Automatic annotation (TrEMBL):
Pfam families: HIG_1_N. This is HIG1 domain-containing protein. PROSITE patterns: HIG1. Keywords: Membrane, Transmembrane, Transmembrane helix. The chain crosses the membrane at residues 6-26, 47-65. The lineage of its organism: Bacteria, Pseudomonadati, Pseudomonadota, Alphaproteobacteria, Rhodobacterales. Residues 1-67 form the HIG1 domain. It comes from Puniceibacterium antarcticum.
Amino acid sequence: MLNDPLFIVMVIAMLVVVGILMLGIGGFAKGGEFNRKHANRLMRYRIAAQFVAVLLIMAFVWLRGRS
């Protein structure tokens, strides 16, 4: 499974979601100008990245279930 390119892309997409989420939570916890300026944008990016990650997970499960 670790040699499967789709699995690797899927894991990278999930790590991107976690990274964006941690950046957003960190900015929220710190507050200040960064949070006011970037909080909504970061959460929109997280939702988009999460959508891509879910699509990749579904594709992976569907393709592996067929074989």
